[in-house]
Write a structure and sequence with these properties.
The protein is of the alpha/beta class. It has helices at 21-33, 53-67, 82-95, 112-124, 136-139, 145-152, 169-177, 191-196, 211-222, 226-242, 250-258, 275-288; strands at 5-9, 14-15, 18-19, 38-40, 72-76, 99-103, 130-134, 157-162, 182-185, 201-204. It has a single domain, classed as Aldolase class I (TIM Barrel, Alpha-Beta Barrel), CATH 3.20.20.70. It is 46% helix and 14% strand.
Length: 292
């Protein structure tokens, strides 16, 4: 399977302390109707650290059910425990997900060899394609291109979500591994520049609230409509900044609430957005043209 285009790192709607599965499925349906190529449940934006294991698995199942094969479902199955990640990826495969997004082990800070063995064990335990999620700002460890190249020699290591914000990285990765290794930006503000440097798409926070624009930008680039892609990127830039003005997914949950797509409820220890951030998010939504 080839992976490219606009993927949404899905929020997880809550009703009080409970996951709102009907709202999640309605949200997935809207995402696909707006042109999103893939949906990614149970990532950072989905508040996966605060989901129980049962909730995590049910969110993946509900996403697969809602997608109905109309978009790629790339389930977040990572953990800082290798065996826990194995359990998650085996469940995602059984549930019908198309691929797995596996974050580098956080807090443990393994060596590069430790990273390689972690991913190899997960790879060997499942038949799903795996996209590495490299986000050193959250995990405390940065996978090197050399380690990624070793992993890419395994048959089902399909690509990377690169949240380093290093725009030299996708070009160097492409030169080291080749053009078929799927590279997704994990930083919305770099989404278009990432494509210029050899990337294939974006796993986006912004597309939670501007899915049509994010998809149109990716598709415009793919067909060579560079000016159109640049114009959309400029519309989205203030929103990309606003949605990271406080710890994500706090601002994007508020933005989704403004659009009537989800409650703004977060799980502790995250708190609701401050008044200043709320005003900034609202202004950015209006600038992008997605809030009247």
């Amino acid at each position: 399977m080839k992976f490219s285009g606009s993927y949404t790192a899905l929020i997880t709607p809550f009703r009080g302390e409970t996951v709102d599965y009907p709202a999640l499925q309605a949200f997935v349906d809207w995402q696909i109707a707006e042109g999103t190529d893939g949906v990614v449940p149970c990532g950072t934006t989905g508040e996966s650290p605060t989901l129980s294991h049962d909730e995590h698995k049910r969110v993946v199942e509900a996403t697969v059910e809602a997608a109905k094969g109309r978009a790629v479902v790339m389930a977040g199955t990572g953990s800082n425990s290798t065996q826990e990640a194995v359990d998650f990826i085996r469940h995602a495969e059984k549930a019908g997900a198309d691929a797995a997004l596996v974050v580098c082990p956080y807090y443990n800070r393994p060596t590069q060899e430790g990273l390689y063995q972690h991913y190899k064990t997960i790879h060997d335990a499942s038949g799903l394609p795996i996209v590495i999620y490299n986000i050193p700002g959250r995990t405390g460890v940065d996978m090197s291109i050399d380690t990624m190249k070793r992993l890419a020699e395994l048959p089902r290591i399909a690509g990377v979500k690169d949240a380093t914000a290093d725009l030299a990285r996708p070009l160097r990765t492409r030169l080291a591994i080749g053009p078929d290794f799927a590279q997704f930006s994990g930083e919305d503000i770099t989404a278009l520049a990432f494509l210029v440097q050899g990337g294939h798409g974006c796993i986006s926070v912004v597309s939670n609230v501007a899915p049509k624009l994010c998809a149109e930008m990716q598709h415009a680039w793919a067909v060579g409509e560079v000016k159109t892609a640049m114009a959309i990127s400029e519309r989205l830039a203030p929103l990309a900044d606003a949605l990271f003005a406080e710890t994500s997914p706090t601002p994007v949950k508020y933005a989704a609430e403004l659009l009537g797509k989800s409650s703004g409820t977060l799980r502790s220890p995250l708190l609701p957005a401050t008044l200043a951030v709320r005003a900034r998010v609202e202004a950015a939504l209006r600038h992008a043209g997605v809030l009247n």
